[in-house]
Input
Amino acid sequence: MSAEWFFKLKEYDSLSKMRINHLKAIKEQQARLESLNIKRQKKQDEVAELKSELHSLQQKYYESEKKMKSCEEQASRLKDIGGSEEKINAYIKEASVIENGLFEQLERTDGIHIELEEAKVFLKGLEKSFTEIEGEVKEEIQKHTLENSQVEMRMKLIMEELPDDFRRILESTLKKNLAVGPFTRLNNGSCFFCHWKISRVDESEIDMQRQLKICPQCSRIFLPYGS
Ligand SMILES: [Zn+2]
Output
């Protein structure tokens, strides 16, 4: 009779591994979209920064142009009234320095427009892969969620079917989250995992009488020989 329960214990364990894999797969799918989202956000931030730079450049350009014009006007006014050559030259020089600055600003403005255009193309491509990947991701998540709910239902059923002693021991062993799972076997009279020596009496109760026992050291459940 107990052979059947040991079999169910093992099934429960393999179902819980399947469950871990489904949840992991769901997380991986979500991460695919997340990484695209991060890329998109980064590019959108860059675009916002470029636009704000463009705006202040335009402001600066407008002011510099006004200043340059006023220098030129001053120079020509002084010329008309026969003002000092030195002052006229100073205004002309200032206007020319400002003009050079205007060229630089224009160059940067062109550069920004190119970068904005590139960003637009990049974002458009990103939207396309978003649409493609979103469909795939949705499908995969749906598939794993459905399969996982079947696995969980089966786990719940097994838990309900198990006799009290099996259920109690399985529950308390699962809580310990042991590496490689909650089961062990006898190996030359010792626990396969932690090598704890088992008494002859226990050994016969586990393997011959198929009694439910846990390792006193690592708390894994002993599966009898042949189960
Ligand atoms: Zn052990």
In short: The mean pLDDT is 95. The chain has four helices and four strands. The chain has two domains: 8-161, 162-227.
